[in-house]
User: Fold this.
Amino acid sequence: MVKSINLKSLAKNILIASLVAVCAALTFRLWFGGFGMQNLFSASSNVELSMGTNELTEMMIHPVRIIVKAEKSEGHNQANELGQIAEIEEFTQFNTMYAPSSENPHLILGMRIISEVLQNGQYDNSLNSGLEEFHSEFSWLVGGENEIIIFEYNFPMPADIFGEHFGQHQNMLSTRVSSFDMLVISHGKDMLLLAFTDRENMRIHYFSVENSLDFEVPETPETAVRYYLSTERFPDSFGSISFIPAWEDILYKNTIKPQAPYTDMRLNTIEPFVHFFFPNPGAMFSTTINNLFTYRDNFRTVKFYPNGVMMFSTMPSGRDTDNTVSFTDAYFAALNMVQLDIESMQSLGAPMNPIFLSGFQRVENENEWFFFFDYVSSNFPIVFSDDFATEIGMNHAIEIRVRNNIVVNYRRLLKNFYPDKNNNPESPSPAANRNFEIILGILPTIPGISEDLLHHAYLQYMLTSSDIGEIILHWCISFVNNTSFTIPAYFAESEVTDGY
Assistant:
């Protein structure tokens, strides 16, 4: 009788041990088995637990900016030193759209043309030349009679992923192009042309097909900003291809204002958002110390700081491998997290500005990547000043750390930005604006500014303090030697009569 009881107890213990082992294995796989297996949000959120590869590729190939050609514009009609009217020079103008949505008609048309060329077209030829010839070729390419759509990227777009996504015929693209950072899509009555452009290495690869598509050219939205091509409008000043905001069309005094999604920081207002980050919200616990809200379970932590920063972190797997983590895999992991965060905000009705990838960095000797995203408002990027970055402990609106293809840290500034219509004059005084000609004129007067050729010139909103009431546009000027500086895009009232 005693022997029988022991056997039953032993069987029960083995069964319990087996179940515990299975649960432990499933738990380990859930938390540490890779980003795609992680349940980032609660089951009640009705949000996809992870993005599929095709959806992530769609997000990856969306350009930072779409640039389309407008019309020829007259140059400045100014008198020379003899009082004679200088000859009027024409320059091609462009419209540009930051962080275009998936419903953008130019994006949709551009992708339709890409598919047609890569599936049914042919490779034509490649240009691999010096700086002057490269600039001349690009100016000819975008300044011709055909309509164009330009996709611009902030990173080298891998041609193999791009070509595979669009169903390239016999690896037509990936066997000839490794990466590109700008794609010019030219469409005329008889021909469709793709020009994959690598600005750093000064290469252009041409592919084309006869135009058998039936489409109408979309109208440019009113929010688009007019731009010049740097190498056409200012050929002696630039060492790279860039698009410069046009003087005539911009009201530099446009301002924006910040608004926090959770202006009343209390537990009951932010808990619904926090629930998305925990597989089992009932297992999390919270603490509040000096307006720092912390939520955690055994593996994850979400914090809301008084300065408006939200931080999510999870325990790294500890399973470092010798295999190199590719940019693409790490970027997919980062995009997955960003998309799920966006959908969680949308499900709660909280506003969020469009975002774009502004940079990335790989940690040497580590299977680790950092990705940085920034907001867009009124078709201009929003950047942080050095003082503001120090104040909140972030240099960008979203900062993501990916280790072994798992997001181990995710931080975002929880603010929304909208146009301040009360401070946007309909007709600002031209004397108050710093156009790009003024910028070129004052460059030699600024101590320490490089005399090298310019690389890029952007207009962007700059956050300088968390207490700032209005946010104004600044010029960001960068040089080919990687130096840069910023300056407000218009004079203060006291400066208008004093000059720079």
